[in-house]
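W.,

You were right to be curious about this one. When I first looked at the sequence I had no strong expectations either way, so I just let the prediction run and decided to look at it fresh. Below is the sequence, 183 residues in total, followed by the output.
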Amino acid sequence: MIKRSGSSRVAPADDVFAARKRKPVPHEFVLDALAPLGPETRPMFGCLAVYVEDKIVLILRDKPAPAQDNGVWLATTEEHHAALRPEFPSMRSIEVLGSGVTGWQVLPAEAPDFEEAALRACALIEAGDPRIGKVPGERRKRGEAPAKRAAAKKAPVKKAPAKKAGKKAPAKKAGKATAKRGS
């Protein structure tokens, strides 16, 4: 029963403070396969990013829309696409990232060989394959422009010491000033 106090405020119900239900981990078998490496996960773009040591290696995605990009996203670079294609025939560019080619590639969940391909990617990551994984760039503060960040990295400029209160600035030499007056 909800009790009312003397004011018009309503006492909170017990279920308001209940822990939020966590979303299920998409494609959890991938994390199981990478378990010997001790992967870390972090939320990213409403998905689950997978890190091994200092590299982001995969993103696991299972969202209602657009469903065509659900699956395992590989962190790679454009230069490795051709070498990875024979290993992953269903691999393609991620459509939600735009029409251009990006380093990220998806092993689509709707592909008939999805689980096999995802486990093959895990095996390559375990073997230390340099084609999969990127060291993320330095994070910047919200609203901070990249130019500001670069300027902040430069060596600080030495400032003149601040004047102390109570001390007067040294007197200017009078010789030049009086010479001008006398001319």
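Here's what jumped out at me. Confidence is low (pLDDT under 50) at residues 1-8. And, maybe more interesting for your project: The longest helix spans residues 114-126.

Coffee later to discuss?

I.
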